[in-house]
Amino acid sequence: MHLLIPAAGSGSRMKEEWTRQGKVQRNKLFLPLLGQPILAWTLLAAQSAPTIEWIGLIAQPDDWPDVKTLLATLALTKPVAFIPGGDTRQASVYNGLRDLPSGAARVLIHDGARCLVTPDLLDRCSAALDHCQGFVAAIPVKDTIKVVAPESQVVQATPDRRQLWAAQTPQGFDVAALRHCHDQGVQQRWSVTDDAALFEQGGLPVEIVPGEETNLKVTTPMDLAIAQFILHQRGLDPHQLAFFKT
Ligand code: CTP
Ligand code: MG
């Protein structure tokens, strides 16, 4: 299975908080988490998932020297291709699809910022593409969600929680179908925050694969603290990587 890892963001929500504290960061994925950059944990999970055979790392060229240093440290055995990032996540994934090896029929896309993904979830996601064209890893929401009018800030509706799922990555697709949806997205100026949304807007079915509650996206400093706690719970520290069979 081919895996694209979008890692070309700037981490503005993380940065906002850090700037308030007088610290400046370029890309949150290089912030340390138990002694390794956040991105290292994502790459180690991909390395340890037997179904993943190729990794396309989508990063801003400014970050490539740091990514190269990181890869040299991790000594992954799987091939890693560098792909330039775009201005938005959508544009970054578009570049990733363009640069997939020619024989790639199916693809998983997993955010670099979801660094707690397990090899097992990646493998379950690869298997899902044996019986569907598109899926999203997701978990049922725990909170009651309100729809709020942006201007008045008045609640408009309370959707039935049983129908609400929180989307995660990995998401996976038939490559030709996803490329078609991305092209449509460019032509019709759709702006989305995940690839499943493009599939949906293209009229194609997206199945659910049960995600993992610990598969959080590191967005704010609090997420980083929670990620550290979860890795500790797993008994992981940088010198004890038994979880990952590198
Ligand atoms: N991403 C990307 N290219 C972009 C923007 C985001 O590849 N132009 C990636 C991020 O690196 C991240 C994933 O998409 O792994 C999910 O995005 P998000 O968590 O929103 O990260 P950032 O965009 O970096 O953060 P923020 O939105 O707070 O600026
Ligand atoms: Mg973003």
Structural write-up:
- This protein has a seven-stranded mixed β-sheet with strand order 5-4-1-6-10-7-11, with helices on both faces. Strands 2-3 form a two-stranded antiparallel ribbon. The chain has a two-stranded antiparallel ribbon with strand order 8-9.
- 36% of the residues are buried.
- The longest helix is centred in the last third of the chain and has 13 residues, at 175-187.
- The protein contains eight helices and eleven strands.
- It has 246 residues and is α/β, with parallel strands linked by helices.
- It is 34% helix and 20% strand.
- It has a single domain (2-136, 167-245), classed as Spore Coat Polysaccharide Biosynthesis Protein SpsA, Chain A (Alpha-Beta Complex), CATH 3.90.550.
- A hairpin with a 2-residue loop joins strand 2 and strand 3 (36-37).
- The model has no long low-confidence stretch (mean pLDDT 93).
- Helix 4 (89-98) packs across helix 6 and helix 6 (175-187) packs across helix 7 (195-201).
- The radius of gyration is 18 Å and the shape is globular.
- The chain has helices spanning 12-20, 38-48, 64-74, 89-98, 119-128, 175-187, 195-201, 221-233, and strands at 2-6, 32-33, 36-37, 54-59, 80-84, 106-109, 134-140, 147-148, 155-157, 165-174, 207-210.
- The protein binds cytidine-5'-triphosphate and magnesium ion (MG).
- Cytidine-5'-triphosphate (CTP) is lined by residues 6-14, 28-29, 58, 85-89, 92, 111-113, 217, 219.
